[in-house]
Amino acid sequence: MEKSLPIPKNFSLSLLRSETARRLLAFGALIILIIAFSLLSENFLRFNNVIGIFIATAVNGVLALGVTFVIITGGIDLSIGTVMTFSAVMTGMFIAKWDMPIAVGVMGGILTGTLAGFTNGVLISWMRVPPFVATLGMMYVAKGLSLILSELRPIYFYDTPLFREIAMGNHFNIFGQSFDITYRGYDIPNAIWILFAAAIVGSFLLSKTILGRYTFALGSNAEATRLSGVKVNIWKTAVYTVCGTFAGLGGVLMASRLNSAQPALGQGYELDAIAAVVIGGTALTGGEGTILGTIIGAFVMSVLANGLRILSVPQEWQIVVTGAILVVVVYIDIVRRRQ
Amino acid sequence: MEPILRVENITKRFGGLTAVNRVNLEVNPGEVVGLVGDNGAGKSTLIKMVSGVYHPSEGAIYFEGKPAVINTPSQARDMGIETIYQDLALAGNLTMSANIFLGRERKKKYLGGAVRILDEKFMLQEALKLLETLDVHLPAPSAKIEKLSGGQRQAVAIARALYWNARLMIMDEPTNNLGVIEQAKVLDLIRRLKEQHVPVILISHTMRDIFAVSDRIIVLHRGRKVADKRTSETSNEELVQYIMGARDDFEAARA
Predict the structure, then answer these.
(1) Total-model pTM
(2) Do B83 and A11 touch (CB under 8 A)?
(3) Architecture of the CATH domain A44-338
(4) Which residues of B touch A228 (CB under 8 A)?
(5) CB-based contact (8 Å) between A5 and chain B?
(6) What is the ipTM of this complex?
(7) Beta-sheet strand order (sheet of B216-221)
């Protein structure tokens, strides 16, 4: 009797091709961009510019982290841009209009995102509204509510200077203990640490917990997952809720960074986030993706925007180049997979 | 000996179409029952009622002697009825052990249960032990399922069912799309299930496979059971006549 089943040829080679190469592709693009921009402009690698890139990545990165989960399930969330705005406006309402403590405003802002994500999840799982439609609806609803609550005007945090410190300060205040975070005299704003903390949490959720396992399972074979006795509706809702929570965090970061909640901002951010996820090697067809890839994807986008700006490329052309790079990266990935 | 599964006068209608019409079925411990019939004869509908995917329009199911109400696939699995679907209910992007434990993951608890982390090591070791008992050796145990061959996937699906103490295994076209060697391996797996006294309902178009492993063969034709024969007492020619509807003497013989 035969001892083992036939092995596909070049097994380990094909594994290498799929797993590692995916990440290398986005990473390679990032390195090439960094090298190119630093050769073309001596200002590119200046400390302040690098910090600027990181800060610019923070909000898009946090949004992209959340939507990575959704995309791995094979779904989509178009609402994260305006949900981010809605969360920022809610934070503004709590702190600047209702005079609540900053902590309440921050929690309120994040939970606003959570609630929006939960609503998306319920619509998609139990009411069977396609993700595209449900989250498109939420996109409009969140945008409208932001405008209504703010009465079409930005909400400023002038009376609470500490709020701006959340993103732009360089120390944490935990239980009355203040921790300065400076590196060789350089200031590294909190927003950057928050991005990395969020990425670590996201990575933990995705690779170590049952939520992550079912996120992949749903995108891989939703029917098989259901037949395995997994309560698919609950977990799908959980995934959209996680995504909304990250959007809520993005809203708080955005408000803190701008020291204001800008109700007209936000639409289009969801597409930047989705682009970052896709550049990072997450398949829109579901079942595949990594947090590391998403973070790299988010950096590709902000390095590109920053570098082109430094080279004085007009903003209109920056948008054109970003779109072209997105398609090229995904196309290379498709060609590589076909082989 | 009491049958593990007894299906009485079960009927399934979809609108005006009667997919399964008053079928009786018994499966005894350690028995491999072949279920054959042309496309649309009602084989899949019949087993989907047993595995909780469809609800019978009429009739009753008894499992281990007790009336069984099976509303969902997970209820069926909790009772020990494991179905290995034609399209293989495995998640291609997950590893072998993740698939075996899908829906019943083992977790390690930290901080008094507040943080629960998947116990990958335990799940991989258990899965490998199990494959060992089936005499299946995977070249790269932590590879994604989609990287495995059809036969290896089939083995994982069977291992998964066994791990969760299957009391009855239902297999829908398990040798479809497999190479010759892999087909033989899958049939060997079915014999191993039999050795472990796990009864199997085997659906197949391949009469050779059915004859190779089954103890009894049931033929469906247009939703009705038209034959129920011991494998040793029938022939390919005879069964083909039943499958084609050229011969229909079952109810007459019973009367």
Answers:
(1) 0.84
(2) no
(3) Orthogonal Bundle (1.10)
(4) 74, 77, 89, 102-104
(5) yes
(6) 0.81
(7) B81-84, B168-172, B200-203, B32-36, B216-221, B224-230
